[in-house]
Design brief:
Elements lengths: L5 H6 L19 H104 L7 H28 L2
């Protein structure tokens, strides 16, 4: 049990202060050795940090080279893809233009052919009319009649050839 007298003594009690003397410090003789170990640890830590930074730089360079190579190959493949697409579009356009040009030429040739048929038919009609007009006249030279008849036969033969071409062209 406690008494009232004991409580105030505990309250006023303070731990004794201790003065530090070199004899009292147990690690004081080891202090130079601890300083050496600390310095060694610090140097080792710096060496590892430098080595780590060097390795990180090496890995970064390797990754940069791999990423660059990967991006270049992706770019090349995309470029090839787009090049093929553009080439196909160009070939399609060229084919369409060639077909259009061929169609235009064929149409122009057909128009020229039909125009030639009309021109020869008109010339043949004129030749026939002239022969019909000159045959009853006895004053016309026989050479002129033969010349007109030869021209008529040539025009008819040429017209048959033209009509054959028109038939072949499907006009």
């Amino acid at each position: 049990m406690r008494t009232l007298n004991q409580e105030p003594a505990l309250q006023n009690h303070q731990p004794p202060t201790r003065t530090v003397h070199s004899q009292d410090e147990p690690f004081l003789p080891l202090s130079p050795r601890l300083d050496q170990l600390t310095a060694g640890l610090h140097a080792l830590e710096q060496w590892y940090a430098a080595d780590f930074e060097k390795r990180v730089a090496d890995v970064t360079e390797v990754l940069r080279a791999q990423i660059t190579q990967d991006l270049c190959s992706r770019f090349d493949s995309e470029l090839d893809f787009h090049l093929i697409a553009v080439r196909e579009q160009y070939e399609q356009r060229l084919q369409a233009y060639a077909e259009q040009l061929q169609s235009s030429r064929k149409q122009a040739a057909n128009e020229t052919l039909l125009e030639e048929v009309r021109r020869i038919e008109a010339a043949l009609h004129t030749c026939n009319e002239e022969l019909d007009r000159l045959l009853p006249d006895d004053s016309v030279a026989l050479g002129k009649l033969l010349q007109l008849r030869t021209q008529q036969l040539e025009l008819k033969a040429y017209l048959r050839g033209l009509r054959f071409q028109v038939k072949q062209a499907g006009l």
